[in-house]
Amino acid sequence: MGRILIGNTMEETAYHEAGHIVIAGAVGLDVQPKGIVIYEVEDVADGWAFYWEDNQQWIDILLALRAGQLAQLKKFPKSEFRGGQSDVQKFSSIVKQHFPPNCDGDMWQDISAKTQNNVNSHWVAIESVADAAMKASWIPVTVSEHPEAKRKKHLDGKTLVGILAKHKISSRVR
């Protein structure tokens, strides 16, 4: 019996990853040179947004982390978001490590509300990044990079900073 892949379409993934990057930039987190990568794995997509989380700005990091799923659901309200389970796990881990005990639910609600406001405020930028990701050419993937991917789309950090600047979001790559 083959395994069942749980994931999203390329378009859903593009909006998800764009949400992460735009809100990361909007709250002052630096973009990593790798930027956004969207992999094609069978009939679904697997994506990653790369921004720095090494500055201990935990609220900002939680906002950027939560933005992927909220951007995806804003554009595709009926989409599955099981592909974002790792975001939820990471959110919970950060809250448990850096905030008072037993505040997970309150943090989730508070961060979700703040993130939704940020997503709404920066929606045009999210659309621009998602559109650029979808229009990017497919390029080959090495097995060591992603053992199950056929090909990928990539927007490097410099390209993303340029798109964000057009929307008056100051960001940098480091």
How many helices does DSSP assign? 6
CATH class: Mainly Alpha
Low-confidence stretches: 1-5
CATH superfamily: Peptidase M41
Any idea how many domains? 1
| Structure class | alpha+beta
Indicate the CATH architecture: Up-down Bundle
The portion of residues forming beta strands comes to: 5-15%
Shape: globular
Radius of gyration: 16 Å
Q: What's this, in brief?
A:
With 174 residues, the chain is an alpha+beta fold. Helices cover 52% and strands 15% of the residues.
Characteristic key phrases:
4 strands; alpha+beta; 174 residues; 6 helices; globular; disordered N terminus
Describe this structure in words.
The chain has one domain: Peptidase M41 (Methane Monooxygenase Hydroxylase, Chain G, domain 1), CATH 1.20.58.760. The chain is 52% helix and 15% strand. It contains six helices and four strands. The chain has helices at residues 10-26, 58-75, 85-98, 104-121, 123-135, 157-166, and strands at residues 31-41, 44-51, 139-140, 151-155. β1 (31-41) and β2 form a beta hairpin. α1 runs antiparallel to α2 and α2 (58-75) packs antiparallel against α3 (85-98). The longest helix is centred in the middle third of the chain and has 18 residues, at 58-75. The radius of gyration is 16 Å and the shape is globular.
